[in-house]
Automatic annotation (TrEMBL), chain A:
Pfam families: PhnI (PF05861). This is Carbon-phosphorus lyase complex subunit PhnI. It comes from Roseospira navarrensis. Keywords: Lyase. GO terms for biological process: organic phosphonate metabolic process. InterPro entries: PhnI. One of its GO terms (molecular function) is lyase activity.
From TrEMBL, chain B:
This is Phosphonate C-P lyase system protein PhnH. It comes from Roseospira navarrensis. One of its GO terms (molecular function) is lyase activity. Coiled coil: none annotated. InterPro entries: PhnH-like_sp (IPR038058), Phosphonate_metab_PhnH (IPR008772). The keyword Lyase applies.
From TrEMBL, chain C:
Its EC number is 4.7.1.1. It comes from Roseospira navarrensis. It catalyses: alpha-D-ribose 1-methylphosphonate 5-phosphate + AH2 + S-adenosyl-L-methionine = alpha-D-ribose 1,2-cyclic phosphate 5-phosphate + methane + 5'-deoxyadenosine + L-methionine + A + H(+). Pfam families: PhnJ (PF06007). Keywords: 4Fe-4S, Iron, Iron-sulfur, Lyase, Metal-binding, S-adenosyl-L-methionine. Belongs to the PhnJ family. This is Alpha-D-ribose 1-methylphosphonate 5-phosphate C-P lyase. GO terms for molecular function: 4 iron, 4 sulfur cluster binding; alpha-D-ribose 1-methylphosphonate 5-phosphate C-P-lyase activity; metal ion binding. One of its GO terms (biological process) is organic phosphonate catabolic process. The keyword 4Fe-4S applies. Catalyzes the breakage of the C-P bond in alpha-D-ribose 1-methylphosphonate 5-phosphate (PRPn) forming alpha-D-ribose. It comes from the Bacteria.
C-alpha cells in the first residue's frame, strides 16, 4: 500500500530516534569522549577541520561523534556551524618558514639545512594489522612515552626559498591573479566567479574533498595534464596565527595551528631569452594531512596551465570543472537529493513518454 | 556604546534602528515591495531621526542595505561629517571618493542628478554589479506625473517626483536603454519610498 | 507565534548575510530572469534539499509572516515538513497548509493550484539555475550567451527534440523567456505550471543554494515558454479527474496501489485536494479502500502539523 515518502513530523522524529540509538551503539560499552576522539582519531579530526574550513579540534571531534563516524557528515555539521560565526578579524599570512617543525622531508635533495625529519609518519610502517592494539583496555601499557628527541634545528629554510635565491624557480608573485592589488578574496563571503584566480583556487582546494583532489592529482601523474612534479618539500608542524588589532597597530599572536605544507617543484619553463626556471605547485592544509597537501599542490600546478601558456587538455587543468565539483558538502548534498520526492517531475516524464509512445505506435497521435 | 571620549571628541552619533533585526526586515520588505511594484509608495515603518541633511527613509534604507561589503559614495550635498560618522558607526560601510567606485550612492541633491553614467552599470556578464542609488527627494505622489510601465506594473501607472530634474525621463531612458546593465534608483521622500528598477520605462505624459 | 530557539539568530542567518542576500534579491528583481551570484552560506540542511530557497526565505521572513512550505505541491512530504519545522524553530513564525492564509510560500517543484494574490511571495527552491547548463556546461560561456542574448543553443536543442520525437520532449523545468530578455529556468516545476508564472500578481523569487544564484520574476512580468510557431507550447492534460476530490483542473500524481497495475491519480497539491473534499467534492475512488487509506494518511499528517503549531 501507498507509503512513499509522505510522512509527517512523527515519522521524522521516529527516524531521528532510531539514528540516535544506532549512533550510540551498544549502551553497555562506554561512550567515546570528545577528548578521546580528538586525540586518538586526530587524522579524521584534521580532515574535518580542513574541509570544514574551521580550526577547532574539539568541535571537529564532537562533529565526528555526532556524525556516527561519517567524516563527510561531520564536515557538513562544522560548515553549518561556521555559518553562524561572526567574522572578527583577518589574520596575517601564516609564516610557514617559522614553523615549529614536527616532520620535514624533501625528495629533491639528499640533505639540506635543517635535515630530513621523518616525524610521525606511516611511510615506512609495514601495513600489518597490530593485534596488540585490539588487546588494549583503558590504560595503555604497550606504548612507552616517546623518548626525549634530539632537538631539531631552529633554522629550517624552505627548499623553494633556497631555489628562489638561486633564481632556479619562478618567483612567487600574484601574476596569476586577475587583480593582484585587490584584497585577498574570501570564497566563503563572496560568490565564486570565473576566472577565479589563484588565491581563490587555493582556498577552494584547501577545503576541497580529499578523495576528489587525490584522484585528480593521480590523473595528472598518469598523463592527463602532466606537470612533471618533484616533492620539493613537505613540512608539518605548528605555526603561529597573528592578527593586527585596529587599536594596537602591531601583530599579536592569537593561537597556534598545526598545518601541513607541500611545495611541489615542477616542469621547468624557459625560452631563448628567458633562462629556464622550475615552476611551483602549492598545498597547505589544516592538521597532519600529507596526502591532501600533496594532491592539492599537484592540482594547483595543473590549474596554472593557462597562466603558464600550457594547453588545457585534461580535467585537472580545467578551473571551472575542478572548482565546481571539489566540495564534498555540495557534492554529497546534490547526489543525495535524488532520494527526495521527484514524483511531480517523474509524472511529467511518464506523461511525455506515454504520449510519444502512443504517437509512435500510430494509435492516434494526440495533441 | 563607548562614551569615554565624549568630553574631548565629537558627540556620539545619533541612534540607528531601534531593533536592528526586525526593523531591518520590515524596511527591506518595504523596499522589496517598492522595487517589485515600481510607482507604488511605501510608508516608513520605523521611527528614525538621522543627522541632517539625511532624511528618514533614505537613512533607514542605508542601514538596511549597507555594511562593510558595500562601497558607498556620498554626493556633495550629503558630505557632512555627522553623516559620515553616522554611516560609519551604524553601517560600517567604506566611503569612496568617486561615484564610479560605488556599489551604493546616497544622493542628497536630486536636482543635480543629470548624469547617471557616472555610476557603475555592471559588466555585460554581471549586470547586477550596477550601482544602487538612494536619492532623497522632496515628495512623491502616485496619481500624477510621469507614466511608468514595465515589469511589476499591470499595464501602466503614474508617479510624480518632486525634486528630480525636469529632464529626468530622458536621462532615465539612457539608463533603461542599457538594460540589463544600468543603475537602479530608490526615491526617498522623508517618509515615503518609491523605486525605479532599470527595467522600468518612464515617460512624460 | 511559537517561541524560536534561544541562541539562534532570527532566521538562522546573521544580519550581514541577510543584507548580502537582500541586496542580491533587489538586483534580481531589477533584472527579471537574470541570475545574480550570491555568497550562499552553508545551511544546516543539505545542498539540493532547498538551501537556496531557505536562505531567501530566511532573509525576507518576519514575525508577521505566515509560512507555507510545499514539496511536490504537498505540505505533507517529509522535506516540506522538515523545512517548515526549521523555520518554526529558528524564526518562530506561524505556519499554515492553507494556500490562501500564507504570505510566504516556499516551494519545490510546484506552483499551488489555488491562484496566489498580490500579498503573497512565492520562493522557489532551484537545483540548476542555468537553463543553458545541459547544452553548455561552462559558466563562462553561458554568462556570455546571456550577455549577448544569444540563445541559439536552446533553440537548437528544442528543435532537435522536435526532429527526434515530433515534439519538445522537455516536460519539466521547461525554459521560459522573461521580460523578453532573459531565458530562465523556472525550476523543475512541470510545464503544466508555466502559464501561472506569466503576468502573475505575486512576486516570484528563486534561490539556488549550491550553485549560489538568486533570480526573480516581479509581478506582472511577461514569462513566455519557448516554442516554435508550428510547434506551440502546450501543457500536460489528463483524461481523468482526481480520484479523491474529482478535480479536473489540477496536476495529478500517479500513485501505485498494488503490483497488478492498480493506480490512483490524485492532486499533487494536497491543500487544494483537502479543501475540495472538505467542500463535499468526491472523486471516483474516494470511497475505495486505497482511496480512504490515502486520504487518512494525508489527514493524519495535517493533524500533526496543526497540533505542533499552536497559533
Amino acid at each position: 500500500m501507498y507509503v512513499a515518502v509522505k510522512g509527517g513530523e512523527a515519522a521524522i522524529d521516529a527516524a531521528h530516534a532510531q539514528l540516535a540509538a544506532r549512533r550510540r551503539g551498544d549502551p553497555d560499552l562506554a561512550a567515546l569522549t570528545v577528548a578521546q576522539i580528538r586525540d586518538q582519531m586526530a587524522l579524521a579530526v584534521a580532515r574535518i577541520m580542513a574541509e570544514g574550513s574551521l580550526y577547532d579540534p574539539d568541535l571537529a571531534a564532537l562533529a565526528l561523534k555526532q556524525a556516527w563516524g561519517d567524516v563527510a557528515e561531520a564536515i557538513f555539521l562544522v560548515r553549518a556551524y561556521r555559518t553562524t560565526l561572526p567574522r572578527l578579524a583577518v589574520t596575517r599570512p601564516l609564516d610557514t618558514a617559522a614553523m615549529a617543525v614536527q616532520r620535514r622531508v624533501s625528495a629533491t635533495f639528499k640533505d639540506l639545512p635543517g635535515g630530513q625529519v621523518l616525524g610521525p609518519t606511516f611511510d615506512y610502517t609495514h601495513r600489518l594489522i597490530d593485534f596488540a592494539l585490539a588487546a588494549e583496555h583503558g590504560e595503555d601499557a604497550s606504548n612507552p612515552p616517546p623518548s626525549a628527541e634530539e632537538p631539531l634545528d631552529a633554522a629550517m629554510p624552505r627548499i623553494a626559498d633556497i631555489l628562489d635565491t638561486d633564481g632556479l624557480i619562478e618567483p612567487e608573485t600574484d601574476a596569476d591573479d586577475p587583480d593582484p592589488d585587490a584584497p585577498v578574496p574570501d570564497l566563503t563571503r563572496a560568490p565564486l566567479t570565473f576566472p577565479a584566480g589563484r588565491a581563490l583556487r587555493l582556498q577552494a582546494l584547501a577545503r576541497g574533498d580529499e578523495g576528489f583532489l587525490l584522484s585528480l592529482a593521480y590523473s595528472s601523474q598518469r598523463g592527463h595534464g602532466t606537470t612533471h612534479p618533484f616533492a620539493g618539500e613537505i613540512r608539518m608542524g605548528t605555526v603561529e596565527v597573528e592578527i593586527i588589532p585596529e587599536d594596537l597597530g602591531f601583530p599579536v599572536t592569537i593561537g597556534v595551528v598545526t598545518v601541513t605544507e607541500c611545495q611541489m617543484v615542477n616542469q621547468f619553463q624557459g625560452s631563448r631569452t628567458a633562462p629556464p626556471q622550475f615552476t611551483r605547485g602549492y598545498g597547505l592544509v589544516f592538521g597532519f594531512a600529507e596526502r591532501k597537501a600533496m594532491a592539492m599542490a599537484l592540482v594547483d600546478r595543473a590549474l596554472r596551465a593557462p597562466d603558464l601558456g600550457e594547453a588545457v587538455v585534461a580535467p585537472v587543468q580545467d578551473e571551472e570543472f575542478v572548482l565546481s565539483h571539489l566540495d564534498v558538502v555540495e557534492a554529497s548534498g546534490f547526489v543525495q537529493h535524488l532520494k527526495l520526492p521527484h514524483y511531480v517531475d517523474f509524472q511529467a516524464e511518464l506523461d511525455a513518454v506515454r504520449r510519444m509512445r502512443r504517437a509512435a505506435s500510430g494509435e492516434g497521435a494526440s495533441s | 556604546m563607548d562614551t569615554r571620549h565624549a568630553t574631548n571628541a565629537a558627540p556620539a552619533p545619533a541612534p540607528g534602528l531601534a531593533d536592528p533585526v526586525f526593523d531591518a526586515q520590515r524596511l527591506f520588505r518595504a523596499a522589496l515591495e517598492a522595487l517589485s511594484r515600481p510607482g507604488t509608495i511605501q510608508a516608513l515603518p520605523v521611527d528614525l531621526t538621522p543627522p541632517a541633511p539625511l532624511t528618514p527613509w533614505a537613512a533607514a534604507l542605508a542601514l538596511t542595505l549597507l555594511d562593510l561589503e558595500t562601497p558607498v559614495w556620498l554626493d556633495p550635498a550629503l558630505e557632512a561629517q555627522a553623516v559620515r560618522d553616522w554611516l560609519r558607526f551604524h553601517a560600517g560601510c567604506p566611503l569612496v571618493a568617486t561615484p564610479d567606485e560605488a556599489a551604493f550612492a546616497l544622493v542628497g541633491d536630486a536636482s543635480a542628478l543629470d548624469d547617471l553614467s557616472a555610476f557603475p552599470i555592471g559588466a555585460a556578464e554581471y549586470p547586477d554589479q550596477g550601482a544602487t542609488l538612494i536619492v532623497q527627494v522632496a515628495g512623491l505622489r502616485a496619481d500624477a506625473g510621469w507614466t511608468l510601465s514595465g515589469p511589476g506594473i499591470k499595464g501602466r501607472t503614474r508617479l510624480a517626483v518632486a525634486g528630480l530634474p525636469a529632464a529626468f525621463p530622458a536621462i532615465w531612458a539612457e539608463n533603461a536603454a542599457l538594460h540589463p546593465q544600468g543603475v537602479d534608483i530608490f526615491l526617498c521622500a522623508p517618509h515615503a519610498l518609491a523605486a525605479l528598477p532599470r527595467s522600468v520605462t518612464v515617460r512624460e505624459d | 507565534m511559537s517561541q524560536p530557539d534561544a541562541g539562534v539568530t532570527f532566521g538562522y542567518l546573521d544580519e550581514q548575510t541577510k543584507r548580502m542576500i537582500r541586496r542580491a534579491l533587489l538586483k534580481a528583481v531589477a533584472i527579471p530572469g537574470y541570475q545574480v551570484p550570491f555568497a550562499g552560506r552553508e545551511m544546516p540542511l543539505p545542498y539540493g534539499w532547498g538551501t537556496g530557497g531557505i536562505q531567501v526565505t530566511a532573509s525576507i521572513i518576519g514575525p508577521e509572516d505566515v509560512l507555507k512550505v510545499i514539496d511536490q505541491g504537498a505540505d505533507d512530504t517529509t522535506n516540506a515538513v522538515s523545512i517548515r519545522r526549521f523555520f518554526r524553530r529558528v524564526a518562530g513564525v506561524r505556519t499554515t497548509e492553507r494556500t490562501r492564509e500564507a504570505t510566504l510560500i516556499q516551494t519545490r517543484h510546484r506552483i499551488p493550484e489555488t491562484p496566489l494574490g498580490p500579498g503573497q511571495i512565492l520562493v522557489y527552491q532551484v537545483p540548476i539555475p542555468e537553463p543553458l547548463r545541459f547544452m553548455e556546461p561552462r559558466e563562462t560561456e553561458t554568462r556570455r550567451m546571456h550577455a549577448l542574448a544569444d540563445y541559439g543553443v536552446m533553440h537548437v536543442k528544442l528543435y532537435e527534440d522536435i526532429a527526434h520525437y515530433g515534439r519538445v520532449a522537455t516536460s519539466y523545468d521547461y525554459p521560459v523567456m522573461v521580460n523578453g530578455r532573459h531565458v530562465m529556468a523556472p525550476s523543475p516545476i512541470p510545464k503544466f505550471d508555466n502559464p501561472k508564472m506569466h503576468d502573475a500578481p505575486f512576486l516570484q523569487l528563486f534561490g539556488a543554494g549550491r550553485e549560489k544564484r538568486i533570480y526573480a520574476v516581479p509581478p506582472h512580468t511577461s514569462v513566455v515558454s519557448l516554442d516554435f510557431e508550428d510547434h506551440p507550447f502546450e501543457v500536460q492534460g489528463w483524461d481523468r479527474v482526481c480520484d479523491l476530490c474529482g478535480a479536473d483542473d489540477s496536476y495529478l500524481d500517479e500513485v501505485v496501489t498494488d503490483d497488478i497495475g492498480g493506480r490512483l491519480f490524485v492532486c499533487s497539491d494536497s491543500d487544494y485536494c483537502a479543501g475540495r473534499r472538505a467542500d463535499g467534492h468526491q472523486g471516483p475512488a474516494a470511497a475505495s479502500a486505497a482511496g480512504e487509506a490515502l486520504a487518512d494518511t494525508m489527514e493524519q499528517v495535517a493533524r500533526e502539523h496543526a497540533s505542533e503549531d499552536p497559533a
